Amino acid sequence: MRFFSRRSVSRLWAQVRRYVRSAPGTYLWLAVLFVTTIALHHMSPEFEEEFLRQRSTNIHELSTNPVRVLITSALWIDGGHWLPYAVLYSVFHAQAERWLGTLRWFAVAVLAHVVATYFSEGALLWAVHHDLAPQSAVNTLDVGVSYALAGVVGVLTYRIAAPWRYVYLACVLVLYGTPLLTGRTFTDLGHFTSVLVGLACYPLVRGRGEPWNPVTSVRRYRRP
Predict the structure, then answer these.
(1) Over the stretch 104-116, which tens digit does the pLDDT of each residue have?
(2) What sign does the CA torsion over 104, 110, 115, 120 have?
(3) Is-contact 160 211, C-beta < 8 A?
(4) What tens digit of pLDDT does each residue of 16-40 get?
(5) Are 193 and 120 in contact (CB under 8 A)?
(6) How far apart, in Å, are the Cα atoms of 115 and each of 42, 57, 67, 135, 194?
(7) Contact 69, 55 (CB under 8 A)
(8) Is the pLDDT of residue 186 over 50?
(9) What's the DSSP call for residue 140?
(10) Cα–Cα distance between 132 and 139 in angstroms, integer?
(11) Cα dist. 31→3, 77, 150 in Å?
(12) pTM for the whole thing?
């Protein structure tokens, strides 16, 4: 018994292609991450750690090669698990790019990545200078795309109509605020800072159409 006809599969594939084409920046970035993740899987653990450290936005690298590491750190995933990011990019980045346009979406992602990196590493440097963190922390491993993702998650608050907007915002603040209160690591600080940067990008969302109302969408979907 066939669960899917050839026509339904073709229709689904066409919808997937339209969705991908509607967010070219998101899926180009995701394609780069796919290639770099495969490359990581072919490295020995020792080589991988040193390789990523040279592309890390740690205190040492930011003080010597800031532009290079701010770019390269966003092209690698620490841990080598690409599929979860494919889902997160499709849910958050793609939606933000479709809504804001590629340039505005990219501006939010870059701002969140840069501001959160400098703020969190600045806090870590302060901790090192006050003997609250070891001197070796200046070479800590800090690569990945999570700061940019958190910034986009934050700006998407304005995509949702009230009162659902405030429910979404509360969930985001709990999701990123709880680790900051319990773990208090520099990455927790960076993630929460990224969300605040996304929320501060309100001027970029003006004139981008009516907010999305989930109730209206459900009613429209159920309408025969």
Answers:
(1) 999 999 999 999 9
(2) positive
(3) yes
(4) 889 899 999 999 999 999 999 999 9
(5) yes
(6) 32, 12, 13, 23, 7
(7) yes
(8) yes
(9) -
(10) 16
(11) 31, 12, 20
(12) 0.90
